[in-house]
């Protein structure tokens, strides 16, 4: 009992989130169509923006965007179509120039493919269900980003991710589950979500006492996408074991 009380004391409770009310920009589509992703970067002049298709070199983690960047995603409901939705996703720490450029470049992209697509702005942490579904529910936001062609990313070998499910009042009401890299310290933990911890030698999944069924179900898929081929050790209930917390600050 004392251990649980201490755990709650330094971790605290996750604040309840409001239900999503943001409607999908496209109806009756499950997000299974083809899409491509480009990051917004400065052109050689440094004034105008350009779209740079992401690659394994620039994005080693599958289905992941950096919170310090903005992206443009062209989605089609099926092969052979130029595009039905052009999303422009804006990271929470993306600068004003990148956010503005993402909107302009989304318009330009739509025009270049015929002008028939829906343009939809997406704020980090407020992604609609259709957007999340495009990535099979395993969409992740990473700390860091690229500024003036210089990358700032996590390189110390230890990474902590929080998997959070949000109730959804839009569409069919399917909960929306998102994954976000958080600071790798004990203060980032709570007893309502699921956490994925990668250390230089191990991979762990901690299912907190109050975690939802959606969070528990999607976390292994996220871990597999982020770190393919690695087997995660799964811990249930609260508090997490010392082998988990000892790797955090």
Characterization of this structure:
The chain contains 5 helices and 14 strands. The model is unreliable at 1-15 (pLDDT under 50). It has helices at residues 2-11, 96-112, 129-134, 213-226, 242-245; strands spanning 35-42, 49-53, 64-66, 70-75, 85-90, 118-123, 140-142, 145-147, 150-152, 159-166, 176-182, 194-198, 203-207, 233-236. The strands form 3 sheets. A 7-stranded mixed beta sheet has the order 3-7-11-10-12-13-14, with helices on one face. The chain has a 5-stranded mixed beta sheet with strand order 2-1-4-5-6, covered by helices on one side. It has a two-stranded antiparallel sheet with strand order 8-9. The protein has 2 domains: 35-143, Severin; 154-245, Severin, CATH 3.40.20. The chain has 249 residues and is of the alpha/beta class.
Poorly predicted parts? 1-15
CATH class of the largest domain: Alpha Beta
Helix content: 10-25%
Total separate domains = 2
Quickly give the structural class: alpha/beta
Number of strands: 14
Please write the string of helix (H) and strand (E) elements: HEEEEEHEHEEEEEEEHEH
Could you tell me the strand content as a percent range?
25-35%
| CATH homologous superfamily label of the largest domain | Severin
Mean pLDDT: 90
**Envelope shape:** globular
Q: Main sheet, how many strands, which sense, barrel?
A: 7 strands, mixed
Total of helices: 5
* CATH architecture title of the largest domain: 3-Layer(aba) Sandwich
The first-to-last residue Cα distance is 24 Å
CATH-assigned fold name of the largest domain: Severin
Give the strand order of the largest sheet, numbering strands 1, 2, ... along the chain. Answer: 3-7-11-10-12-13-14
Radius of gyration: 19 Å
